[in-house]
Design goal:
The complex is a heterodimer. In chain A, strands 1-4 form a two-stranded antiparallel sheet. Helix content of chain A is 14%, strand content 25%. By secondary structure, chain A is an alpha+beta fold. The radius of gyration of chain A is 14 Å and the shape is elongated. Chain B folds into 3 domains: 188 residues, FAD/NAD(P)-binding domain (3-Layer(bba) Sandwich); 126 residues, D-Amino Acid Oxidase, Chain A, domain 2 (2-Layer Sandwich); 50 residues, no CATH class. In chain B, 33% of the residues lie in helices and 29% in strands. Chain B is built from 11 helices and 16 strands. In chain B, strands 1, 2, 6, 7, 8, 9, 15 and 16 form an 8-stranded mixed beta sheet that branches. In chain B, strand 4 and strand 5 form a beta hairpin. The chains are: A alpha+beta, B alpha/beta. At the A-B interface, helix 1 and helix 2 of A face strand 10, helix 5, helix 6 and strand 14 of B.
Chain lengths: 72, 387
């Protein structure tokens, strides 16, 4: 018998309240997975590989790995 | 709004505006698209530029000069200040005004400007780029062009859509944080550079004077450093130690791609210029002058290609850029890799030897000579710069 693991998944999460829209993460993203507009920033989920380079290159620590769907 | 232009320029920073102006001057139709509502804002820049770098492109005007620079001061980790007198060296700009003026100079030659126009895709004729898709006030639009010039900055994506690999390795991205603060008591004609493992590892911290006792205080650290400690955190440490009570007027994050230019900066129907092409001096991190030079070549070559009706002519941009600055930037990049890995002791030794040279005999050349004694393997690269 298999059962659902309880770990959930990790996803890259940009805190839009903290984000300064500077574009560092867009410039280093190897997958072209970040969309930066005048006052909004998005992760393109189907391209993001969770490589975490954007986390390291953020000057203001606005990007983190967030756990999603963690079972209780 | 026309549906077709000879040239569409994405981005209205110094590089995009100069590209647009050089193209419009040759009598071709030019459209400039800017994603922000305001040209020149937000200012993600230390704002220093050499006199020669700016005067090639615009007549000097007091309204965009915030400070006139005649001295550099290099501050070693132990606090030794080694200054070099440069005479009439350069300026600290008021970029908000400067960028406006550059864009206006392009408009005066006939370029059309559209702000709040966010480019989100390319149009193709087979493999050739044939225009851009953009979002303008909630509406999706398209405009065709014979040549697209992507001057869309450090966050550039336009080149990628044309199949050019434009992203920067995270280790080469100097991730920056800067504040403009007032009540900063420094010499109003000196650019200060601080070095040290605890101040700005793998990079430097700058204090650049601005008018009225203000200064731009900022630093950049490589992504590899940011893994452990962010640029913001390093800057806070410096401010708390040196200027704890200085009122901060504005603070910005930003990125400087500190690497050689992209291997390829043109492809069928598209050219890349400025920060987007990584046309930044990798040693100093300065990108205004080199971006304008890149833009000027791109704009002129694009217009020539349109006028001669020879689409392949735009590929000559790569070689022209490499001969003008690209090769030099590769050398600067090697010097950067040599210098930015110096230990604190080495920086302290260099500064200690340098301050023994009488002030009137100090120059960048003598500084590098002193640096050489501390790291002979730099000799070949430094010789290339000065010979």
């Amino acid at each position: 018998m298999f059962r659902q693991a309880k770990t959930g998944i990790l996803i890259i999460d940009i805190n839009s309240d903290k984000c300064d829209l500077c574009g560092c993460c867009v410039g280093i993203c190897p997958e072209d997975a970040i969309e930066l507009k005048e006052s909004e920033i998005f992760i393109i989920d189907e391209r993001c590989t969770n490589c975490s380079k954007c986390i390291w290159s953020c000057p203001i620590e606005a990007i983190k790995l967030k756990k999603e769907g963690v079972a209780a | 709004m026309r549906e077709e232009y000879d040239i569409v320029v994405v981005g209205t920073g110094p590089s995009g505006s100069i590209a647009a102006r050089y193209a419009a001057e040759k009598g071709v139709s030019v459209l400039m698209l800017e994603k922000d509502r305001d040209i020149g804002y937000p200012v993600r820049c230390g704002e220093a530029i050499s006199k020669a770098g700016v005067e090639e492109f615009i007549a000097v005007d007091e309204k965009w000069i915030s400070a006139k620079i005649n001295k550099f001061a290099l501050v070693s980790p132990d606090g030794t200040e080694a200054s070099i007198d440069f005479g009439d060296a350069g300026y600290v700009l008021e970029r908000k005004v400067f960028d406006y003026e550059l864009a206006k100079s392009a408009a005066n030659k006939g370029a059309v400007i559209l702000t709040k126009a966010y480019v989100n895709g390319l149009l193709f004729d087979g493999d050739k780029v044939a225009g851009v898709k953009y979002e303008y006030r909630g509406e999706q639009k398209e405009v065709r062009a014979k040549v697209v010039i992507a001057a869309d900055g450090v966050e550039s994506r336009v080149g990628r859509w044309a199949g050019i690999q434009t992203y920067t390795d995270f280790r080469d991205m100097e991730c920056c944080m800067q504040v403009t603060a007032s009540n900063i008591n420094i010499d109003p004609g000196t650019l200060y550079f601080y070095f040290g493992e605890n101040i700005a590892p793998n990079g430097y911290l700058w204090v650049f004077p601005k008018s009225g006792g203000c200064a731009n205080i900022g630093l950049g650290v490589s992504g590899i450093i940011g893994k452990k400690k962010s640029a913001q955190s390093y800057l806070n440490d410096f401010l708390n130690k040196n200027y704890p009570d200085a009122p901060v007027l504005t603070s910005f994050a930003g990125g400087v791609p500190s690497c050689p230019t992209l291997k390829k900066i043109s492809a069928p129907g598209i050219m890349i210029a400025g920060d987007a092409a990584r046309q930044v001096n990798p040693l100093s991190g300065g990108g205004i002058a080199s971006g304008m030079i890149g833009g000027s070549i791109a704009g002129r070559v694009a217009a020539e290609s349109v006028r001669m009706n020879k689409p392949d002519h735009i590929f000559s941009y790569d070689a022209e850029w490499n001969n003008r600055l690209g090769k030099r930037h590769e050398t600067f990049n090697r010097i950067k890799n040599g210098i930015y890995n110096f230990s604190d002791d080495k920086f302290n030794n260099i500064a200690a030897s340098f301050v023994k040279i009488p002030e009137n005999k100090r120059s960048l050349r003598s500084l590098f000579t002193v640096a050489l004694f501390n790291n002979p393997s730099l000799l070949i690269d430094i010789a290339k710069v000065f010979i």
